[in-house]
Request: fold
Amino acid sequence: MGYLMVMSLSGTVMTGICVLIRECRKHKVSARSAYLLAKAAILYYLIPLPELGERYSRMLMSITCAVSRHVFDFSPRWSYYMIRANGDVYINSYMKIQYMAAAIWILGAAFVFLAELIAHYRSGKRLVNCMDEAKVSAETWGIRRGGRFCHIQQKVTVYRDVPDGQDVTFGLFRPFILCTLKEGKKQEEYALQHEMVHVRRGDIFWKMLLRLATILHWWNPAVLYLYHAFERLCECSCDEVVLWGKTTEEKKDYLRLVVIEAEKVKKNKRKPENPPLGIGV
Reply:
């Protein structure tokens, strides 16, 4: 539980930094920079940093010791305190609280994990139906990923003219794109560019990490805030990348496409037969 608390506190601090930067410098921070900060916050929720844990412990120690002198007889130095005498084991009250907290955390994490599995199963069935109903056969594209010294060629399958839905990308190792627009339209080109940015950056992988962080820290409201904010940051940063180098008219066309996609999302949310589409971007 100690490492879990360190990860939760570290992630919460990083999430708070992201919020402060965005609120204090709204018009001077690009969507891509805010997106990178959110990715850093996800890593802090998942990677234990013992050196930060020691700092948190010293801060907690100073606070609780100062309060305990005036309120109650409690000190974190006695956590994990256990005595063995005459074949019996005696533990202090604080350790019993830790055991109870661990049991509650396991139950909560199991419940959230089960909910994610159910959502994944339902979205999988809906995706299969969408691909079966696609009027245009699947087309495979090649996309180059990686940095300056390492290039990876990845294949992406595109399904065009998919009915009743919004443009979305799924799959980590074998990504595929569901495109609702007909082939040949300018808006379809913009939509595919947007989805290709998702594939190139590995946004599916980062959303999976965020789901894992949500399962581990389900009790922390900061990770729930990041869970909802990351989707918006991810989409805005993709829009920013696609708009680089575009003319004024092209930017207007792209903004019209964004409005159309937003209307599709609202329409699908009103339909009870269309559940949320799992881990997709």
User: Anything to note?
Assistant: Residues 67-78, 272-276 have pLDDT under 50 and may be disordered.
